[in-house]
Each structure stands twice: as C-alpha cells, then as structure tokens.
Amino acid sequence: MNGTAHTLDVDHRTTLLDALRERLGLTGAKKGCDHGQCGACTVLVDGRRANSCLLLAVAQDGTEITTVEGLAGDAGDGELHPLQRAFLDRDAFQCGYCTPGQLCSAVGLLAEAAAGHPSYVTPPDTGSPDGPASPGGPAGLTPAEIRERLSGNLCRCGAYPRIVEAVADTAAEAAR
C-alpha cells in the first residue's frame, strides 16, 4: 500500500475501500455510491485504476495499491504529484469529495494513454501498425479523449472543464 507492505486479518466480505478507510486510516478514497458508479473510491491496483468499493480486500493479496495519499509519496520530498499541482493551479475542484478518485483515475489514464491503449473516442486509424503510439497517447489526449477516459468519475459540483485542463497540462508537461 503506497509502497509499504501491510498484513491485515479481514473478513472475506470486506471491500478494499473499507479496509483502506477503516483498518489503515487511508481516508482519501471516498465512499460515494458504494456501487462502482461514481468513481469517488478510485485507486490504482498494480498501476491500473479500479473502484475499490467493488474489490474484495482478500483478493488484493500481493498487489500494489496506490491511493491518493501515495501519489505525492513517490519522490519522498513532500512535493506534490504533478497532477495534484495541476489541480491546484487550475482550481480543478470545488467541494473536493471526488478529487482523490479523479486524481487516481487521471494517473491511470495517463499511463494507459502512454502505453497506447485506445479509448472509445480514439480514431481507429491512430497509432502505427508496428505498435502503440508515442507517449502522450494514441490520440494525443485531446479534451474529448480526457473526458471519455475520465467518464467513470463523477463530480457533483461540475468542475469538469478545469479537471480536463489540469490533466491536459500534466500530459503536455510529461511530453516535454
């Protein structure tokens, strides 16, 4: 979990979200709908985004879980993750309830795009026949691409335009 191994004795019905929040005190991931529909509980499991309210904790044995609390921890110097900085710079949140899930999902989408994984809106002729496109994604992470890739994360405040701008800023910075 965020680079630290944890051993927990949990009931086999305990969700990853409940284990994170109630057993480990990692309250960044939020319980929104508890049905996998809002994305407030999004975390990274082995680098892939996942709704932690739908995952059983016991099934995550041996996986690397990254929560919003662990995003800035990569450098160990107290610096924010580039996406966290971009969210602040773009004022990409209002109440902040969805922000941890939005951030984890955005980290996942940047990795997916860099690996050349297309989204629903990626044009079929994008990329090269020899493999995935260059870092930045097969469609260059246009606003439409970012919106589609973040469509599983809801924001009741409607901060979507600023969230898209923050993700685009981070993708552009990473491409430099």
From TrEMBL:
InterPro entries: 2Fe-2S-bd, 2Fe-2S-bd_dom_sf, 2Fe-2S_ferredoxin-like_sf, 2Fe-2S_ferredoxin-type, 2Fe2S_fd_BS, Aldehyde_Oxdr_Iron-Sulfur, Beta-grasp_dom_sf. Residues 120-143 are annotated as: Disordered. CDD domains: fer2. Residues 1-71 form the 2Fe-2S ferredoxin-type domain. Coiled coil: none annotated. Residues 122-133 have a biased composition (Low complexity). The keyword Oxidoreductase applies. Keywords: Iron, Metal-binding, Oxidoreductase. Gene3D superfamilies: 3.10.20.30, [2Fe-2S]-binding domain. This is 2Fe-2S iron-sulfur cluster-binding protein. The lineage of its organism: Bacteria, Bacillati, Actinomycetota, Actinomycetes, Kitasatosporales.
